């Protein structure tokens, strides 16, 4: 498989303008490849460097050391800056601060309009994108009359109207209620499965990582774990050490194991967990 | 609630004026205002009255709403009328005197004439704001001002339109936020209702400062989001919605031209 994004020994330092010797390293010497078409979740608590990493993936931040390649293009090249941003879309935490127009369809049209596309093509893309996130019937609404989850879906539609290869979502659910959170996760999953868009989801909600192809755990600017969700969540001690909460099912199986019940810990969903516990009880 | 305040005064209805092209509406409004001012005699003014009333009726916006607009400028209206009442060109007949000021029949006529003119002006301008959404107005202004780019103001027109779009989008968001901060400060014992004017003005500081800080933060995040959506200052930008003149727009234009010709003819009487 080929990689859509490649990070080569990337570091990012925030420097203080007044005191140059005091610099804060958010990401240090990190190498990572994101496979085309994959669904990757990056986990980490606040200040682990995951947001800085996200902003480097589409060239919004340029690494202070190392290189980021998007589809083979270095994000540091000025001439291709727009092209990189088109290839790698980015959705942020607060939906209110991403919407530009007071009419939904005009907001979704903002990206394609910036690319200078033909009005007919823009109209086609806007309708398609709104349908893809299930917000087509709201195309003439005003964003401030919509719920947080709906606004965030509009923001996602605004990104996919640019036809990106990859979508980075930087804690898109942090400001939403559980219902809105489920809406976003479902939408993103659907885009990944049906449209083949590569997804990088950055979050601190572990449940959102359950269906990912790959989970990366970050702490203090470095990757401390990288694997499938089941591999990662087995390691309950490590996750707790870096300040993350494991899913409740994993926590339960972990606690049962600790107390002498040899149930397998490599399952995640509630149904699977119930099944393995039932199996264990039957065997006994 | 404060939240429901929307910028502008758009009144949703389905009338030919609502559907008309916003660019046409702006140009015709300016033309109509000029010709209302050019009405020299009573007949021309009466003709203007008929025209404006017809426009108000066609707009399908309730007359009550237009009257509300008038209330706001009532003091200015009365003031103008009173000043004009004492105007005299010397040949007029004296009606009565108050102290050293004399009211003549010509003055009285002039007062009524001026007041009517202002009322017509307010009415016809409100037709534009009541029948056009703020977004359409912004689009139309951008299009109408676009010739400015040939005289060295290339980015100015686009920037102005972008600013208006963002302002329209964020007014409800900021109003909501101000409300939240106000409630938070009230919960901490802040008092906005009592005390002298100075005290009350001072009480607003704990609302304005957090609001300002959060706005700056919002602006920063919005700028990043815009950059991620390939915004580069409007260079080579196209628009999804193209404004196109429809047959009805020409009909409306023709009617306005008839009105203008009518005024010129009546002025000759």
Outline the secondary-structure elements.
The complex is a heterodimer of chains A (284) and B (269).
Chain A: E1 3-15, E2 23-35, E3 39-43, H1 50-57, E4 65-70, E5 73-74, H2 81-87, E6 88-91, H3 104-114, H4 119-132, H5 148-160, E7 166-170, H6 178-195, E8 198-203, E9 214-219, E10 222-227, H7 229-234, H8 236-241, H9 248-258, H10 270-283
Parallel strand pairs in A: 3-8, 3-9, 6-7, 7-8
Antiparallel strand pairs in A: 1-2, 1-4, 4-5, 9-10
Chain B: H1 16-19, H2 22-38, H3 42-58, H4 63-72, H5 74-85, E1 94-98, E2 101-104, H6 105-131, H7 134-145, H8 154-187, H9 197-203, H10 205-228, H11 247-267
Antiparallel strand pairs in B: 1-2
Q: Descriptors for this entry?
A:
heterodimer, A: 284 residues, alpha/beta, Rossmann fold, six-stranded mixed β-sheet, 23% strand, B: 269 residues, mainly alpha, 69% helix, 3% strand, disordered N terminus
Q: What count of structural domains of chain A?
A: 2
What is the CA-CA span between the terminal residues of chain B? 54 Å
Q: Averaging pLDDT over every residue of chain B, what do you get?
A: 85
Number of domains of chain B: 2
Count helical runs of chain A: 10
Describe this structure in words.
The complex is a heterodimer of chains A (284) and B (269). With 284 residues, chain A is an alpha/beta fold. Chain A folds into 2 domains: 3-231, P-loop containing nucleotide triphosphate hydrolases (Rossmann fold); 247-284, no CATH class. Helix content of chain A is 38%, strand content 23%. Chain A contains 10 helices and 10 strands. In chain A, a hairpin with a 7-residue loop joins strand 1 (3-15) and strand 2. In chain A, helix 3 (104-114) crosses helix 4 and helix 4 (119-132) crosses helix 5 (148-160). The relative contact order of chain A is 0.14. The model of chain A has no long low-confidence stretch (mean pLDDT 88). Chain B is mostly helical and 269 residues long. Chain B folds into 2 domains: 2-132 and 246-267, no CATH class; 145-228, no CATH class. Chain B has helices at 16-19, 22-38, 42-58, 63-72, 74-85, 105-131, 134-145, 154-187, 197-203, 205-228, 247-267, and strands spanning 94-98, 101-104. Chain B has a two-stranded antiparallel ribbon. In chain B, strand 1 and strand 2 form a beta hairpin. The model of chain B is unreliable at 1-7 (pLDDT under 50).
């Amino acid at each position: 498989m080929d990689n859509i994004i490649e990070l080569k020994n990337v570091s990012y330092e925030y420097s203080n303008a007044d005191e140059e010797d005091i610099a804060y390293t958010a990401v240090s010497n990190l190498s990572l490849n994101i496979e085309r078409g994959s669904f990757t979740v990056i986990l980490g608590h606040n200040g682990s460097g995951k947001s800085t990493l996200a902003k480097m993936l589409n060239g919004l931040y340029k690494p202070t050391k190392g290189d980021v390649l998007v589809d083979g293009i270095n994000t540091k090249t000025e001439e291709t800056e727009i092209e990189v941003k088109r290839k790698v879309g980015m959705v942020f935490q607060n939906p209110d601060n991403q919407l530009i127009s007071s009419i939904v369809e005009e907001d979704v049209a903002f990206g394609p309009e910036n690319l200078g596309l033909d009005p007919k093509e823009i109209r086609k893309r806007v309708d398609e994108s709104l349908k893809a996130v299930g917000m087509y019937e709201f195309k003439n609404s005003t964003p401030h009359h919509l719920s947080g989850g709906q606004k965030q879906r509009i923001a996602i539609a605004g990104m996919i109207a640019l036809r990106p290869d990859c979508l980075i979502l930087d804690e898109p659910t942090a400001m939403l209620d559980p219902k809105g959170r489920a809406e976003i996760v479902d939408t993103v999953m659907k885009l990944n499965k049906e449209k083949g868009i590569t997804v990088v989801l950055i979050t601190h909600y572990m449940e959102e990582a359950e269906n990912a192809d790959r989970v990366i755990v970050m702490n203090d600017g470095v990757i401390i774990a990288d694997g499938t969700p089941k591999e990662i969540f087995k390691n309950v001690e490590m996750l707790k050490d870096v300040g993350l909460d494991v899913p409740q099912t994993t926590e339960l199986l972990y606690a049962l194991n600790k107390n002498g019940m040899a149930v397998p810990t490599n399952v995640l969903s509630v149904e699977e967990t119930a099944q393995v516990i039932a199996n264990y009880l039957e065997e006994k | 609630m404060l939240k429901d305040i929307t910028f502008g005064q758009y009144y949703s209805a389905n009338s030919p004026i609502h559907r008309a092209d916003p660019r046409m509406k702006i140009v015709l409004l300016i033309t109509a205002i000029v010709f209302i001012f050019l009405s020299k005699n009573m007949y021309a003014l009466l003709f203007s009255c008929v025209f404006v009333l017809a426009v108000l009726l066609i707009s399908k916006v309730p007359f009550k709403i237009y009257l509300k607009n008038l209330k706001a400028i009532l003091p200015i209206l009365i003031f103008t009328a009173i000043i004009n009442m004492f105007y005299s060109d010397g040949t007029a007949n004296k009606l009565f005197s108050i102290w050293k000021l004399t009211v003549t029949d010509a003055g009285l006529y002039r007062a009524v004439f001026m007041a009517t003119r202002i009322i017509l002006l307010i009415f016809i301008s409100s037709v534009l704001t009541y029948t056009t959404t703020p977004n359409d107005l912004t689009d139309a202004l951008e299009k109408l001002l676009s010739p400015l780019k040939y005289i060295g103001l290339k980015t100015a027109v686009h920037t102005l339109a972008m600013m208006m779009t963002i302002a329209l989008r964020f007014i409800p968001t900021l109003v909501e936020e101000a409300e939240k901060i106000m409630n938070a400060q009230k919960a901490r014992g802040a008092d906005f209702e009592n005390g002298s004017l100075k005290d009350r003005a001072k009480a607003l500081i704990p609302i304005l400062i957090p609001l300002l800080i959060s706005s700056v933060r919002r602006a920063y995040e919005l700028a990043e989001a815009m950059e991620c959506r390939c915004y580069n200052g409007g260079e080579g930008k196209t628009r999804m919605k193209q404004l196109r003149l429809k047959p009805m727009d020409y009909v409306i234009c023709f009617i306005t031209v008839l009105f203008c010709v009518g005024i010129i003819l009546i002025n000759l009487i």
